[in-house]
Amino acid sequence: MAPLQDDHDAVVERFQPTSGRVTGWLTVVLTGVLVVAGVAYVDEGFPLWVVAASLLLGVLAWAAMLRPALWATHEHLVMRNLGETVHIRLAAVEEMAVRQVLAVRAADKRFVSTVVGRTWRKALTSRHRPGGLADSAALAPTEGMHYADFVENRLYDLVDKARSRDGIRAGSEEQLALPDAVRREPAWLPLGLIGACLVLLAVSLFL
């Protein structure tokens, strides 16, 4: 019998992107059309460097706008970005805020996710909460709440629960000394594709 999945790795909340998807898909489609057209008409003088540049732009749009994701497990906040996937232990989160992007401080380092964010104007007027959820009822999601507000509230709730479960106080020495506070995994697929496109572009410029 196959072992059951560790409950600590089970996804408890998957957050939806607040922007960038439409632009990302449009860019991928348009660059895809250029690549197909270039391959079809390469014998008629269509520049190879345009094909390579379009392919590179399409890969960058996918990696930067469509690939990023944000979710939480029982133990970690997971940020999948262009070049890496970062696993941040919830109890190790020192500070967190959703502005134009989500910024999280843990293990004395700052990590950013572009998946969730506010508009520039909304970011200026939003209320920053440097501590935990002292009044969770006041911060509970309500009908009509902006999605970025819901994400911030939900993340604070998950962080507070993780701290309570581990007996950790925010800003304490125990929090700073937590083992495996952050784990980073390189995103080899997008990095490899971007590298290959750069090589293809360089070669096409000399042909």
What can you see in these coordinates?
With 207 residues, this protein is α+β, with helices and mostly antiparallel strands. It folds into 2 domains: 18-66 and 188-206, no CATH class; 69-186, no CATH class. The chain is 43% helix and 20% strand. The chain has helices at residues 21-40, 48-66, 120-125, 147-166, 173-176, 188-206; strands at 11-15, 69-73, 76-80, 84-89, 93-98, 102-106, 109-113, 182-186. The strands form 2 sheets. It has a 5-stranded antiparallel sheet with strand order 1-2-3-4-8, with helices on one face. α1 (21-40) packs antiparallel against α2 (48-66) and α2 (48-66) packs antiparallel against α6 (188-206). The model is unreliable at 1-5 and 130-139 (pLDDT under 50). The chain crosses the membrane at residues 22-42, 48-70, 187-206. This is PH domain-containing protein.
Topology:
Layout lengths: L10 E5 L5 H20 L7 H19 L2 E5 L2 E5 L3 E6 L3 E6 L3 E5 L2 E5 L6 H6 L21 H20 L6 H4 L5 E5 L1 H19 L1
Antiparallel strand pairs: 1-2, 2-3, 3-4, 4-8, 5-6, 6-7
